[in-house]
Specification:
By secondary structure, this protein is α/β, with parallel strands linked by helices. It is 46% helix and 16% strand. An eight-stranded mixed sheet has the order 12-22-21-14-15-16-17-13. An eight-stranded parallel beta barrel has the order 24-25-26-27-28-29-30-31, surrounded by six helices. β24, α20 and β25 form a beta-alpha-beta unit. The longest helix is centred in the last third of the chain and has 25 residues. It binds adenosine-5'-diphosphate and magnesium ion (2 copies).
Amino acid sequence: MTDQTKYVYDLNEGDASLKSLLGGKGANLAEMNRIGVPVPDAFTVTTQACVAAMNNNGEWPAGLREQVEAALDRLEERTGKVLGSTENPLLVSIRSGAVFSMPGMMDTVLNLGISDDTVGAVAALADGNERFAWDCYRRFIQMYGEVVEGVDQYVFEDALTEAKEAKGVANDTDLNAEDLKALTKKFKELADEALGGHWTTDPREQLMRAINAVFLSWNNPRAEVYRKANGISRDLGTAVNVQQMVFGNRGETSATGVCFSRNPSTGAKELYGEFLTNAQGEDVVAGIRTPRNLAEMEDVLPEAFHELLATMDKLELHNKDLQDMEFTIEDRKLYMLQTRNGKRTAAAAVKSAVDMVDEGLITKEEALLRINPSDLDALLHPAIDPNFKATAIVKGLPASPGAAVGALSFNADDAAERGGKGESVILVRYETTPDDIHGVMVSQGVLTAHGGMTSHAAVVARGMGITCVAGAPGIKIDPKGETVTIGDKTYGTGDTLTLNGTTGEVFEGAAPLVPPSINEDFEQVGAWADEYRRLGVRANAENFEDASKARELGAEGIGLARTEHMFMAADRLPSVRKMILATNEEERAAALEEILPLQQADFEEIFSAMKGLPVTVRLLDPPLHEFLPNIVDQSLLVQKLELTGGSEEDLARERTLLAQVKSLHEQNPMLGTRGCRLAMLYPSIPEMQARAIIRAALAVQEREGETAGIEIMVPLVVIKKELEVQRDIVVKAVEDEFEKAGKRLDYTVGTMIEIPRAALTANEIAEAADFFSFGTNDLTQTGIGISRDDAEAGFLGHYVDAEVMSKNPFESLDQSGVGQLVEMGVEKGRSTKPGLKTGVCGEHGGDPESVEFFHRAGLDYVSCSPFRVPIARLAAARAALREQ
Ligand code: ADP
Ligand code: MG
Ligand code: MG
């Protein structure tokens, strides 16, 4: 059977719509060509070919080799050049290009086609520029050797350094034709040494091997880490672009660079980019030479500069998004080598989207769909206190904004390990390579000695919202990589530094941070989101500050006010213990009497912060032992008193306490006497809480003319009867308070749905409930049957790494499993009570994907921590827009 699949597309056969086949790079190259932007000619091997090879132990699908040969013939015909020709040789690059851009994660080979046979012709065609030809050749051996044949990069790096040292120069550009010729010879010897006879000089064979190497690079470790971090599926594969070379290293009238159509840090519409004359490919981003600001190109290469400006505008207008572009100028002629929607900071995402709506480039809807809700998190991060007046110990480039405080780490593995354990670390590197990604990801910030605003470190950090200061001048990292010397001081792994990624400054020690300021653009996005969303957004908060913050960030009420934190405060614990340990109802009532006014005061604060909006107060939930000393500690205390002969009185008291702790001890407290089960045993607790709530609400009403909407929530109900009993207790207490006060308020009594049985019998429970709130944390624990406290530290990490589970179900709702319980709860609840109000108050209420699910499940609102409110608002709007 012959394979009819088309695996190869010529440049002029593609366009932007073919992204899934041609990859982002290939599709955009074709699209640029289509709209008349100068692009070197090329062909693209599809992602489908890569996938087919991967699925067949790396063996190419039938017909692929022939299709590549044919495409090469056509490319030779179009360019008038021939691969391997000694008169007019074609040189090509072999470039990876996945569907979703993964900058620097996979491999590229440049200058393929240069060899002992062709190097002379390459020089002749470049007006006899020998230096240029040998520069291309040595670069080729280096890249091909590393990428295709797996020669260790240090083999070549060391030889290059030696050559420079021998000559006493710092830059590659200071090596002349003779030097480069010798270096090429050395490189070839080194490659031969490393590989024995495996090296091939046949350019067609080299091309096939290079294409294959790009296929394989899809599964290299750094690409895998990047894919995981960005939720990109392993099944997609990469395309491979084979493109005619253009040369930025043909002397001072040639250059290569990177530019953005807007500032990717701030979003401002201004010139942003870097370039180097007489340079090729990665030189700009690799940080080997420090690149020049793009603005300076106007003086050096004015015509190409103005053409570049016009091209940037054209590409942004065409793609209607911030573009990140690569260009090369060969002897004053401009070529575009790549364009893509640029990675940007959250601040830039918000600003550029709002500006583009103002400019009429995109609609409000497009703006909302473009901003990733989780990115907003970064905007809500702290900055260095503006009143902080220390002098920076060094100032580098402001590569990714924000403030980072952390202890130093000098290699990615160490940073990954310490950061993974929750330590705040700053990764300090000479320059970061894509191999450092796992360390960058978990660091607070990255500091590099080399590299510019478009270096890998900068691009990756910006994309992940991690602070980065790049190219800090004069900092010295010791060769062992254990200390960094800045000025005349040396800092090691125990030392802390602060980075200001917005200014590039680095400070000694931990600078004071201030909460983030939310600007107009941010507010604008929130306001647009509110126009489109159906789902309400509330916050989980239990004090005045959090409630006020939540309201400021757009919360429409409180979906969960826990009351146990109020019990934990040091001044209350004695009364709480008295209540728990009471041996009769009178003692208990007396203890509760002490607690009531304290609870009332807490509620007054919250109701005042949320006046006019609903507040759901959850009655006491945790098991009582949480308020008592730990059983082991208490046993030890008693033993100690026995041994040291403590007073009879002390001993008796501590022994009684130990006996009580023992009697309350449970093997599985999270499945034990907690929630309404506790309230069933001790009805005076919910009664006291109900009274405190109503007194607070009436007091705020009286004092401030308005109070919050009162919703009293009973936790952990699994049987309708439980809710009926609790409801009775609450209603009696509430009515009694109304009577005493001679005033009334509206209030409702509802329940949490957080155990599978509650979801399964939601139709029954709804008869006694005014509202449901899904406690998705407990529903996840009990629905999947995993303990959050144990699993997150234990097997769950392995499950996620090994892709047994795609995500931690406590962070993002297990939609296909636990999600069914939510859907069932809503549906069954509403089958009894049409229009029953339903919400979510678990951690998932602030997770964008879960929020979209809750929207589809028909819930009325989500509730999340105050700082996630803007994220939930945007996610809810996107859910509504996607549905349209
Ligand atoms: P990445 O995905 O890591 O950016 P690229 O495939 O874009 O890798 O290529 C790496 C570098 O080589 C880029 O700077 C690119 O502009 C340059 N390059 C790639 N192909 C060519 C070419 N045909 N001519 C000149 N430079 C090229
Ligand atoms: Mg690129
Ligand atoms: Mg719960």
